[in-house]
């Protein structure tokens, strides 16, 4: 798990772009399999893009919350015995 976190930390934009592309593809595929054949392909693509944007916002929000609490925990850590190591 640490290796995955390190890779994602190094390649943030690529990770977000990959999640967005996977969400567009998944949503478009799900919309194509639905029982509403009356929708035009352009409308299905618009819906897929909207779903992908919602997923991407959720992922970005989760990442921001994670970083906020992680940084807060790091700032609150105090050295053992009050020594600063100097």
UniProtKB/TrEMBL annotation:
Pfam families: HIG_1_N (PF04588). PROSITE patterns: HIG1. GO terms for cellular component: mitochondrion. Residues 1-78 form the HIG1 domain. The keyword Cytoplasm does not apply. InterPro entries: Hypoxia_induced_domain, Rcf2. The chain crosses the membrane at residues 12-30, 50-69. It comes from the Eukaryota. It is found in: Mitochondrion. One of its GO terms (biological process) is mitochondrial respiratory chain complex IV assembly. Keywords: Membrane, Transmembrane, Transmembrane helix. This is HIG1 domain-containing protein. The lineage of its organism: Eukaryota, Viridiplantae, Streptophyta, Embryophyta, Tracheophyta.
């Amino acid at each position: 798990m640490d290796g995955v976190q390190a890779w994602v930390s190094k390649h943030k934009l690529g990770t977000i772009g990959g999640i967005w592309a996977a969400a567009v593809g998944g949503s478009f595929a799900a919309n194509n399999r639905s029982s509403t054949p009356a929708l035009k392909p352009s409308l299905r693509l618009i819906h897929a893009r909207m779903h992908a944007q919602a997923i991407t916002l959720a992922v970005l929000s989760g990442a921001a919350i994670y970083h906020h609490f992680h940084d807060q925990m790091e700032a609150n850590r105090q050295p053992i015995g009050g020594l600063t190591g100097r």
